[in-house]
Task: inverse folding
């Protein structure tokens, strides 16, 4: 019987279920939050049982002040946080863990309107940045707070959370009330301080769904691909460079299938096209970096999106959604672990609202292959050419020509209408003699048209 009992215990042990913590979601003063599954250490040594504190799933909201400040300066500090951060709110002031407190006792105070606070000495061994957290009252361990937002523009394919070391990702398991929208979580900006080594510290990044991210699957804009292929074992170099510079990836973003150009809604079959927020909110977002463009144009809580440009996949979405974006030179960074469309033309790049973040991200991604002119004197081209602009007697012509004239005045340049036929005739390659360009018009793209006696190519 004893032998049988031992065998039974061995069988039970080998068949034990695996339970993995994926975080939890809570609601604090009508704002939804996600409690990260990664412990940041202990703010308090041992259980923290104060019956008057709000709690859910054993968690209570707290504020950590990691700098040794006088209590008299806390009110001004918290007032600054309300304008600096979209995650922290006064409800986190129910308990304040303050560094440098000499006495171990709890004291009561009020630092924001009607919020009553308990001030507690911060564990002297804690290495926590200031900001909002959720404290496990049974262990004293703290977890970062992520504010949850609805992806109402339909820009994302998957919401993700990045491991503290930036070497692994997992789906963010939370959902807030929304109509057919994913939920995206963003960490507090208070956790991060930009440095020379971490110029992107805390910058929130969306990634086009063609780049590998370690630990999760990608779709390349195709449901079958997502279902058939396993999770990536390594993050693409272009994205890892941003993470190493302090960037925080918050999710995968929609691309048209396999990064080909598509127009909504006829071409978008596996996933609905994102919504361009400009105009009436139903304009074409362009492609293939459609999710990247729609997200940055729609959400102030997102700082930057990584797209790719082969034949206009960054320039198109940037142009129609009022963003900064360009096609960089080819070969600036490795495209290993990225779905190829045309290896001789594929380039990684950004869609942004803020040119300073654009500059910092470009330097982080392209490293030694990038030269920043952010601090130098701007140099603009002095020769500006227009092609196919309508006459100023039309409403569209007035807008375009007025803009071009103001641009020329701003850069101190000269505005000239390009005569495409003359330019072609003066520079035609030897192998293309006899071919003429089509005359440009507002509705006709400029292409080459062979003459009747030209040999077919």
Result:
């Amino acid at each position: 019987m004893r032998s049988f009992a031992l065998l039974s215990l061995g069988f039970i042990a080998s068949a034990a279920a695996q339970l993995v913590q994926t975080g939890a979601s809570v609601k604090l003063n009508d704002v939804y939050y996600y409690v990260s599954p990664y412990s940041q250490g202990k703010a308090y040594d041992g259980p923290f049982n104060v019956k008057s504190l709000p709690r859910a799933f054993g968690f209570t909201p707290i504020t950590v002040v990691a700098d040794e400040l006088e209590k008299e300066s806390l009110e001004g500090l918290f007032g600054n946080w309300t304008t600096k951060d979209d995650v922290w709110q006064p409800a986190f002031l129910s308990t304040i863990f303050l560094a440098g407190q000499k006495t171990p006792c709890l004291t009561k105070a009020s630092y924001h309107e009607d919020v009553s606070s308990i001030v507690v000495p911060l564990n002297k061994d804690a290495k926590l940045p200031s900001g909002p957290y959720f404290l496990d009252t049974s262990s004293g361990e703290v977890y970062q707070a992520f504010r949850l937002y609805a992806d109402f523009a339909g820009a994302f394919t998957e919401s993700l959370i990045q491991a503290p070391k930036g070497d692994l990702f997992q789906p963010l398991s939370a959902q807030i009330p929304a109509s057919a929208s994913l939920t995206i979580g963003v960490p507090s900006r208070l956790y991060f301080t930009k440095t020379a080594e971490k110029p992107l510290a805390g910058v929130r990044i969306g990634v086009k769904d063609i780049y590998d991210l370690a630990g999760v699957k990608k779709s390349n804009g195709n449901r079958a691909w997502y279902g058939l292929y396993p999770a990536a074992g390594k993050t693409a170099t272009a994205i890892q460079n941003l993470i190493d510079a302090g960037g925080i990836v918050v999710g995968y973003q929609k691309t048209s299938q396999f990064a080909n150009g598509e127009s909504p809604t006829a071409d978008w079959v596996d996933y609905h096209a994102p919504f361009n927020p400009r105009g009436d909110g139903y304009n074409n977002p362009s492609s293939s970096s459609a999710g990247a463009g729609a997200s940055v144009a729609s959400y102030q809580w997102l700082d930057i999106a990584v797209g790719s440009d082969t034949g206009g996949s960054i320039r198109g979405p940037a142009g129609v959604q009022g963003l900064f974006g360009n096609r960089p030179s080819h070969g600036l960074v490795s495209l290993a672990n990225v779905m190829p469309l045309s290896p001789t033309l594929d380039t990684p790049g950004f869609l942004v609202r803020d040119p300073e973040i654009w500059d910092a991200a470009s330097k982080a991604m392209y490293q030694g292959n990038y030269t920043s002119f952010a601090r130098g004197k701007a140099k603009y081209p002095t020769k500006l050419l227009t092609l196919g602009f309508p006459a100023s007697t039309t409403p569209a012509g007035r807008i375009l020509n007025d803009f071009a004239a103001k641009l020329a005045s701003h850069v101190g340049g000269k505005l000239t209408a390009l005569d495409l036929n003359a330019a072609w005739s003066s520079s035609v390659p030897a192998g293309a003699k006899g071919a003429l360009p089509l005359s440009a018009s507002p509705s006709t793209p400029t292409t080459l048209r062979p003459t009747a006696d030209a040999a077919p190519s």
In short: Residues 395-411 form the longest helix (17 residues). The first strand starts at residue 24 and ends at 28.
